[in-house]
Amino acid sequence: MKVAASLLPAFLILAVLLFSGCQENPPVSKSDFYLDTVCTVTIYETNTSLSAEEKNRLIDRAFTILGETEEDMSSHLEGSDVARINEASGKKTVSISPRTMEVIRNGLHYSELSGGAFDITIGPLVSAWDIGGENPRIPSQKELQELLPLIDYRKVVIKGDQDSAGGSVFLPQKEMAIDLGGIAKGYAADRTAEMLIESGVSRAIIDYGGNILTIGNRPGDNPWRIGIQDPASERGEYLGILQITEEAVVTSGIYERYFEKDGKRYHHILNPKTGRPARNGLQSVTVVSKKAIEADALSTALFVMGPEKGVEHAAGLQGVEAAFVTTSGKVILTPGLKERFEIKSEDYN
Ligand code: ADP
Ligand code: MG
Cα(298) to centroid of ligand 1, in Å? Predict the structure, then answer.
């Protein structure tokens, strides 16, 4: 597996601000490296009394979910569903697990909803740039022109109805490739929350590389306070604090994975229309919603759309709130966040 160069920043993307005080049962927390990033689960409270060891075992089950997600959906893991689909592009249909099918279905839904700003067939461009990988480079305009026709989620052929076990996928053009990097962490967070809640966990935080999903309220029954990183700060300072209850908070930004050449920064969120990193006056987009898979896909989509179209699009979505941070230091909030977002840095307004 490829190890991302940006292990440290991933830690700093979003931090949960906690007010520990004296607690009878200290929280149990563990981190590990999955899906190219640091994944942490912290259990604060359970409905029935569980020992620290039992809580640790629940977190291990969360890591099993992450491992399964990686084995199914990593594009650079030989034999994964996604690797097999991509290898067979233009040749044949590939049978996949129900889990991968669920994520692909969701991915196609958000591709459609965003008018292709989010597009799960972004694979050829992700490979060409290899941002965050071992050989990042700037593809020539000619190369990009050749790749652009391959990026079109509408061409993906899926078979198998919604409830059946698994299904199959066919990419009709040779060299087409899907990439679930913009949605898989959110999916894994949702699955983890379901497992933890079924196991009696009443307060917890799941943080998969900055894709945060909370269970219950913070101990003391107040909303959680999530620090949103200042995208311009090298030291992981917060630009503001967001209050959330049982919700997902996901940020997509220019500081997560990137490389620099001749003083110019190339980040990992690509515009499927131009084939280049989306450059539109945004530094980051944070999305709050009930489901982490939704927040994950939409944070990427809204980032690609840019400040004007993105704000308008977010306003039309039920149960979705967003914070847009522009390169000029403006923070634009959807109405539902106005009371819940507190700006902490003097560089922003
Ligand atoms: P992160 O993975 O850092 O949390 P995102 O959720 O925004 O950030 O996802 C970025 C990843 O999604 C990229 O690394 C790439 O794999 C994929 N991706 C990049 N651009 C797009 C796009 N326009 N649509 C769908 N996926 C994308
Ligand atoms: Mg995303």
Answer: 10
pTM of the complete model: 0.92
Kindly provide the b/e burial profile for residues 200-217, where b requires at least 16 CB atoms within 10 angstroms of the residue's own CB: ebbbbbbbbbbbbbbbbb
Out of 1.10.10.10, 3.80.10.10, 1.10.3980.10, 1.20.1050.10, select the CATH number for domain 78-170: 1.10.3980.10
With a 6 Å cutoff on the Cβ, whether 100 touches ligand 1 is no
> Does any ligand 1 atom lie closer than 6 A to the CB of residue 122?
yes
Per the rule left: phi > 0, alpha: psi between -120 and 50, beta: everything else, 345 is: beta
Q: Which CATH class is domain 2-69+183-343?
A: alpha beta
- Residue with CA nearest ligand 1 atom 11: 182
- Give the position, in ligand 1's atom list, of the atom nearest the Cα of 117: 23
Ligand 2 center to 183 CA (angstroms): 5
Using the mean position of ligand 1's atoms as its centre, give its distance from the Cα of residue 286 in Å: 14
Number of the ligand closest to the Cα of 73? 1
List the domain boundaries for the chain: 2-69+183-343, 78-170
Confidence band (pLDDT; 50, 70, 90) for 163?
A: low
Model confidence pLDDT, tens digit, residues 97-154: 999 999 999 999 999 999 999 999 999 999 999 998 889 999 999 999 999 999 999 9
Cα dihedral 303, 334, 244, 111 in deg (nearest 10) = -40
